[in-house]
Specification:
258 residues; mainly beta; Beta-galactosidase, Chain A, domain 5; nine-stranded antiparallel sheet; five-stranded antiparallel sheet; GH-type_carb-bd; Gal_mutarotase_sf_dom
Length: 258
Amino acid sequence: MVELILGNQIVKIDAGELVSYQVNGYEVIHQKGTPGWRNSDTEMFPIIGPTNEACFKVETPKGSATQDQHGLLREMVYGRMEVTSTMATFKKEYFPGKVVKNSKYPSKSNVEFLSWPYNFSFLKVFNLSDTGLEIKFIINGDKGMPYMLGYHPAFKIHSSNPEIIANNTKITLPEVLKVGSRALPIVDCDTITLVDEKKVEIKTQGFSNFMLWTEVSNMLCVEPISFYPYAVSQDDLHHGFKTQEAKEDTFKVHIKVF
């Protein structure tokens, strides 16, 4: 467990997963073991969304790749790179064609191994400052590599009537619950504020969209995404790809508590 501390802020990271962010004792992150989700955060890469209706295949310029829901990055283990009192860096690295064990097999999937025809490294950098917590993602892949990126943090709900403010519009938790597993899309948006017992601002760079998802009243996933996967059929997921052009593509999420 890595712990970052700055003034009244405490961040706890378990093998690259953000498991706690407290400001003056106020817990921002959904806690494992409580109703809702077995994780507290994860990344969706190189695809977002389900693939079962497409026989677990996603089309790329180098042919079909075997991917389960939300890609293979979440099945890989982070290596710890650098840690200070206010910063921590973790890394995942993949080589073309390497098979990755699918944890959903066989209970929730019929594909045992996942693979991707491109080389990439994926850095996750936590930086705690006076303005809040920044999580930065740095992708370094083959030139021309297609990909989607989504960050999937779960936020703890403290009150009975929280509101979500996005693009100057108020959204209620029952509205999110009603959408179900497809998640509620918020497009062309870089900032969402969760109004609970305190206000939690989630501000992003590079993503441009969000999905909101939950199945319980004590947790809400506010997910920055590069593409909303349910905008197309599973056979057409490749239409949502970005392309790696620069040596490094950088995405940022900043969490601030008021």
